[in-house]
Amino acid sequence: MTLGINIDHVAVLREARRVNDPDILQALYTACENGADQITIHLREDRRHIQDSDVKNILMHSKVPVNLECSINKEILDIVSTMRPHRATLVPEKREEVTTEGGLDVVRFEDEIKYAIEQLHDSLIPVSLFVDPTIEAMDRSKELGAEMVELHTGLYSNLFAMLHSNLPYSNHAVTELDLPRNELEVRLEKSLNEIKTAALHAKKIGLEVAAGHGLNYHNVSEIMNIDAITELNIGQSIIARSVFTGLGDAVKEMKKLTSR
After folding, report:
1. Residue 197: which of 259, 141, 137, 145 has the closest Cα?
2. Phi and psi angles of residue 152, each rounded to the nearest 5 degrees, phi first
3. Secondary structure of 43-97 in the HEC alphabet?
4. Where are the beta strands (DSSP E) in 2-47?
5. With 90 as the cut, is the pLDDT of residue 43 above it?
6. Per-residue confidence at 105, pLDDT binned at 50, 70, 90?
7. CA distance 16 to 36
8. What is the C-alpha separation between 163 and 63, in angstroms, rounded?
9. CA 209 to chain centre
10. What is the distance between the terminal CA atoms of the chain, rounded to a whole angstrom?
11. Cα dist from 253 to 8, 125, 220, whole Å
12. Cα 152 from Cα 128, distance rounded (Å)
């Protein structure tokens, strides 16, 4: 299992005060020294955290592959094509969202995604699509020419948190999942089975399979049991843990949990 560490939230803290502290490169070095197999960053259109200069510096100094998440916006694609990361992961993006919500709609935006993949391939950049765990999304991703898919685990993570954490009692409770525990349990099992089914199908048709979004130290074990998934990309929970333990120990702990 490859562990990609998303260090966007280090840049979120930096941009909150508009100073160079915490240093994104120090986060890069610490993550790599403590078990990161990959660094994942998201160059958003609004540049709310990662900046163009961050991408250049991380690509220059990272000793592990860099997975650059980006939208299908033409301006962003031109930048990514020039920078040539080890992989580009195409994700949906809305200016008003707090974080990426849902997978890329590979039906509605089929033409735009196909063009984006072709442009990235012209620059010799492998492409992954961040998609919801459905059979249709797996098939469409393959047809569009992607080498890899990353399964969106947000619903699974939210269901798990509503069942097994204090999230229902916080200001951030997921209101649409304010349901009886027995119904949450049924939905959690269904969500996990959808991830398993999609992962197995993706592998069967020749796609590499990653997973990510909302994964943390408590819910990652069930995803680890899905053999078809060979990569995880985890960020917020690791950076949150690092506030109390330090980033090195936070990465080490996650690496231990995700080692088969």
Report:
1. 137
2. -75, 115
3. CCCCCCCCCHHHHHHHHHHCCCCEEEEECCCHHHHHHHHHHCCCEEEECCCCCCC
4. 2-6, 38-42
5. yes
6. very high
7. 25
8. 39
9. 12
10. 7
11. 19, 31, 12
12. 12
- pLDDT digit string (tens) for 176-194? 999 999 999 999 999 999 9
Distance CA 180, CA 26 (A): 44
Mean predicted confidence (pLDDT) in 23-29: 98
pLDDT of residue 178: 96
**Would you list the DSSP string of 171-238?**
TT--GGG---HHHHHHHHHHHHHHHHHHHHHHHHTT-EEEEESS--TTTHHHHHT-TT--EEEE-HHH
How far apart are the C-alpha atoms of 72 and 69, rounded to whole Å?
10
CB 144 within 8 A of CB 131: no
Question: Annotated active-site positions, please?
Answer: 42, 69, 213
Burial 44-54 (b: 16+ CB within 10 A, else e): beeeebbbeeb
Maximal C-alpha separation, the chain: 51
Give the other-Cβ count within 10 Å of 217's Cβ: 16
Q: Which residue has the tokens 């610490």?
A: 30
Entry pTM? 0.95
Length of the chain: 260
pLDDT value at position 97?
A: 52
DSSP symbol at 116: H
Which DSSP helix (H) or strand (E) runs through 119? helix 110-122
